[in-house]
Records
---
Amino acid sequence: MELSVEEIAAQLGGSLEGDPEILIRGVADAKEASEGEVTFAEEERFFEVALAGGASAILVHSKHTSPAPGKAIIRLDNVRAGFAQLLEIFHPEEAVPAGIHGSAQVDESAQVDASASIGPGCVIGRNVIIGPRVVLCGGNHVAAQCSIGEDTKLFPNAVLYDRSRVGKRVRIHAGTVVGSDGYGYVFDGGRHRKIAQIGGVVLEDDVELGANVSIDRGALGDTRIGEGTKIDNLVQIAHNVVIGKHCIIISQTGIAGSTKIGDYTIIAGQVGIAGHLTIGNQVTIAAQSGVMRDIPDGQKVFGSPAQGDREFKRQLIGLQQLPDLIKRFRKLEKERLS
């Protein structure tokens, strides 16, 4: 597949500088690119690398002014988003043929759209609904009364427990479990009595779950992941958590039960969030933070216990200065006593 830089600029909604007839056959990293490939440079330092490389075209920010002799420049307001579009154009996902593999087990009450692809070793339970162009890659267990919306893909060995509802264009990567029992017990008569978890899980449209994510079903109502939210590998989400739209949750985060998280919130890696909290919209929680209180809209927090990021950074600087302060104090004490 080849496209002219003029065609690429038109598809990306950018402005072109240079020969419009230059042909592009693929995309590449600035250092590795060769003739016939396009790369991107969000900042001036990256532009210098791209300029020295072999790429025939460079995506740059619309405010970029430096010339690129012998190369085409496509100016965009969002360079990284444009590059993501190009990757989709030049490297589309391989089409999967519709049909049900002979080794799959499909309950007679299940409704599987004719355009869906059910891979080897899949098990589909009673009253499951699988929509158009859904792909189950293989080894997937979809338990009773689940529903899966159109264009959703489950990678190998991803599992949906019963009554899980998955929206459109959702991606669930290998080893992820949706709808396992919430961690609910009551101490009774010298032992931990299990509290039945009878709720479900709802994944709204355009959610993506990384590998080995665990999302517990609700105790009574549903655990819910909002539209467009992206969850990295190895994240644990407990029962009755509600996560808003278009959030980013990075790996090894753990969110305890019944916590509510607003829209467009970013949670960095290895964050721990206690239960029954309310985290607002557009909050940023820095890596390895421990959240033990509610956080209002728009705040940036850091540390354990999490607090305003600037305040915690001042504390870290103070801790770094502490050894010198102790030496000075001991010296003053020695002088006072001598």
---
Amino acid sequence: MKIGIDIDGVLNSHYDFSITYGFKYCSEIGKYQLENINAFDTTDIFGWTDEIAHDFWNKYRKDLVSELPAREFASEVISKLRNLGDEIYIITARKNYDEWFPKELQSKVEEITKKWLKENKIIYDDIFFNIKDKGTHCKEHNIDIMIEDETKNIKKLINNTSIIIYDAPYNRIPEFNNLTRCYSWYDIYNKINRRREKECV
């Protein structure tokens, strides 16, 4: 099978990072107002303006992309899947010259991402950056399963490929009730193998 994997929120704990570092930043700037703990964007979580959110991410984005470790067992499970013959494709919206990164990193986003994947022993067959429509991309590249967390991406993936939603508070919406949901990397492993067994019958 061809398996597509998102980075932020799937390979790493993007939501936990946003909450933990977001509260820290609220303390630093003296502006704390929790709006929605179940939201995805820090603007919605803390009621920040785009300007404050930009300042936050320009200060702490490096910690997210360089220092935050991969989720537990992500490397181990991906290695097992490849050993079973599956192809692994990293599919991300990250790109060089993204304004949400500090200026000194903007030209190196892709390089830093590849370095992080290597350091965290995430092996893959190919990586695709700056993918705005993951549904179209997966359809065009015959991706059998896409592991994704963000709601806008999941909506575009529906009817284009099979989806495994990496569970997070912001993606627990009725529209996705009939989609496969996972809670850990070994949960992903078991669900992919269950599908494999059904297809072999």
---
Amino acid sequence: MTDERHDESSGRLPFADDGAADDLFVWDGLRPPPRQADPEPGRVPGESRRSRAPHESRPSGDEGALPPRRAAPARGAGDEWQDWLDPGEGAQRGEPAAGDGAGGPFGPDALGHVPERRRPRRRRLSAGAVLAAMLIGFFVAGLLDAKAIETAVKGKPLGTARSVQLALLKPMVVLSGALQLDRPAEALNAMLGRGDAAHHSIAEVKNKAKPKWPRKITRKHPLRLYIIGDSMAQVFGSSLENLAEETHLVKAKLDYKVSSGLSRPDFFDWPQRMIDQIVEFGPDATAVLFGANDGQNVLHKGKVLEVGSKAWQEVYAKRVGKAMDILTKGGRRAYWVGNPIMRDPNYRERISMMDHIYEAEAKKQPGVFYIPTWALFANEKGSYAEYLPDANGDPVLMRAPDGIHLSRAGGDRMARAVLEVIEQDWGMPQQP
């Protein structure tokens, strides 16, 4: 056996003889696998050793040596190195590698037959088709609730944008009614008590010979209290409703409408709503909180009046006075609640202007009490405050993050102040 050693001058790597370990892969750093030795005499280059006859054996000096391993086909070192780094796209599918039998170490002989997995082809829609489907869906949804959308748009501030939106909505409203697509929405609103029922007239608010006030309030004959307003009345009203009914001397009903007010009867007609509820609920008194949405331009006799102008204040004062007159029919009492101080300076000025109108109109109307809450929500310096001390002197969050609405603690604070006035006016026992 010839002992081949590394020849420093030749640059070749040492190779073992064609013995038991001649085809073991040697990994040494980043060096490529060793070049395969010359084929044995009498064997055709590239011939697989597996093709030998079973009786043929390889000369060996050790009779007890292990059976010879299958040798890889004689290929260039560069080819084997490339196969190791990238077995090829065919090998990933189990196809035979070039010159390596049925797939070699990457073929089906290693793992068995693997059926090809085919994913179902998805039908892709074009961007135009998707957009068209979305537009059709929006249009159908709009037809189903066209009246509600129109009502919401009517509540927006007067201006060009509102006029354009209403003009665009008008054909949809007409088409929705003609096709009766608005019936499901109307049926749902009727089930929830939000439908347009038949209205009552002011003549039905009868002036009885005996006025509602004064009278003795007992558990058997509790005070019927109607609570109305915009979104500010949502928290305040629920607090007043709960605190009043805890006395067992009051039967309260909360009725608020978000984004509403007295400035825009075209969006929500509060005077008509007051008449309907006086006839149906029959309140002895009403607690009122408006103004959060009223600081906007109003439409009067075909002319838009700018908020804060002299003409605007005159029109708004007449609307407030009309509401007070409706609520005090039959000797009823009305408790008009002023708005608290607001965080935004410009918004604060508008709210202050309207609070002065409420106070001035209340002085003209018998049976109306104006209850200011501006200072109730201001700090010691008279400025806006998010936190105020409670009865124990601990700071409590009173306002919502928007600087307008009330927290639950703020609603309770305002409700206690209003309930105290009501109890004093009707001679009810004061609550601790």
